[in-house]
Amino acid sequence: MASYASAKNGAKTLLIEKSQEIGEPVRCAEAIPSIEEFGLKPEPEFVRNIIKGGILFSPSGKKVTVTQDKAQGYIVERKIFDKYLAIRAAKVGSKVAVKTTAIDLERDGNYWNVIVEFLGEEYAIKTKVVIAADGVESNIAEYAGLKAKKKPLEICSCAEYEMTNVELLDKNMMEFYFGNEVAPGGYVWIFPKGETANVGLGVRDKKKKAIDYLEEFIENGLAKDRLKDATPIEFKVGGAPVSGPIEKTYTDGLLVVGDAAGQISPLTGGGIYLAMDCGLIAGEVASKAIKANDWSEETLKEYERRWKEKHYEYLMNHLKYRKILEKMSDDELDALAEALGDSLEGIDLKKFVKRIITKKPSLLKYFKDLL
């Protein structure tokens, strides 16, 4: 989205992709709440399923069904979706370099030299503005002097199988499983994807690997009877930074977006929509700065102002809720599910808090600061 916005607004743009194929490897569960506001249609070539809501399971199996009024989301084929977005950017003028890795960043007067490696050879690309969208392991922001590195337990370790022969509760509802035994510091998901389903989890734990927790859930978890005939057709791993946004996302001639900037929900680990929207803002701000012949820190801070106006409160609230949930025992998570009831319409976390403390006063200690 950053390269699309930058090129569309007249800036000479180069999209650098370290993989030999855009969209590979896939490192996420492929759910996105909406794409229409980006001028995108839910094309059958990349949309695998329409999502109407979610079903939440407490450790004991208490079920809470959440629907989102008339809104809907999508499960996409990420490898196709990413390539679709790259083609869209190329059509408005962006150039694309694949199998090209940015390995360093050097100052050259008022410009940056981006040092890249392609087929064993190193090259320097001189540019006015760099948009660092290099993921959770971001080095580019660090090269520019920004603090972007995450501590191990600030990253949710994720493992996922795309599986066939999964028996779903509802083909248009995502499933979420919580508990300190099944997924400490995270949750298990089953996301319907047409003829297949993404079955995965994210954990923050030193005791076992994410894949070990996943295998245990498939064999012995609450959904074991519906997964007994399931078989994997693809395996994915990745990491989701869940400690909130980094302290600063801009400096002279550089902007940081997406996972690299911590623009991902600390509660759900969902980040596609946020990365797309913040990328769009970054591309607009970068192209505007180049047109004005001023890409100083003072000019580029518009990017942080704009994305924070839209998303900062949401991210910080999700960080609060995540920290609350991770303190709860399994019995308290069960009590939380009891308080929420069998079904909910819409996601209104403040309303949830009032309902929780009314029905389960014992949980007040966790939520009193949110009132």
Descriptive tags:
single chain; 371 residues; alpha+beta; FAD/NAD(P)-binding domain; D-Amino Acid Oxidase, Chain A, domain 2; three-stranded antiparallel β-sheet; 28% strand; DGGGPL_reductase; phospholipid biosynthesis; lipid metabolism; EC 1.3.-.-
Describe the overall structure.
Strand 14 and strand 15 form a beta hairpin. The strands form five sheets. This protein has an eight-stranded mixed beta sheet with strand order 16-12-15-14-13-4-5-19, with helices on one face. Strands 2-6-3 form a three-stranded antiparallel beta sheet. A three-stranded antiparallel beta sheet has the order 8-9-10, with no helix packed on it. It has 371 residues and is α+β, with helices and mostly antiparallel strands. The protein has ten helices and 19 strands.
Unreliable runs: none
Structural class: alpha+beta
Strand arrangement within the widest β-sheet reads 16-12-15-14-13-4-5-19
DSSP strand tally: 19
Give the full name of the CATH homologous superfamily of the largest domain: FAD/NAD(P)-binding domain
Radius of gyration: 21 Å
Number of domains: 3
Per-chain topology:
Elements: H1 2-8, E1 14-16, E2 31-32, E3 47-51, E4 53-57, E5 63-67, E6 73-76, H2 78-91, E7 95-97, E8 100-108, E9 111-118, E10 121-127, E11 130-132, H3 140-143, E12 155-164, E13 173-177, E14 187-193, E15 196-203, H4 210-220, H5 224-227, E16 231-241, E17 250-251, E18 254-256, H6 272-291, H7 297-325, H8 330-340, E19 343-345, H9 349-359, H10 364-367
Parallel strand pairs: 1-7, 4-13, 5-19, 11-18
Antiparallel strand pairs: 2-6, 3-6, 4-5, 8-9, 9-10, 12-15, 12-16, 13-14, 14-15, 17-18
Helix pairs in contact: 1-2, 1-6, 6-7, 8-9
Binding site for FAD: 2, 17, 28-29, 31, 78, 102, 259, 271-272
Pathway: Membrane lipid metabolism; glycerophospholipid metabolism
InterPro entries: DGGGPL_reductase, FAD/NAD-bd_sf, Geranylgeranyl_Rdtase_fam, Geranylgeranyl_reductase, GGR_cat
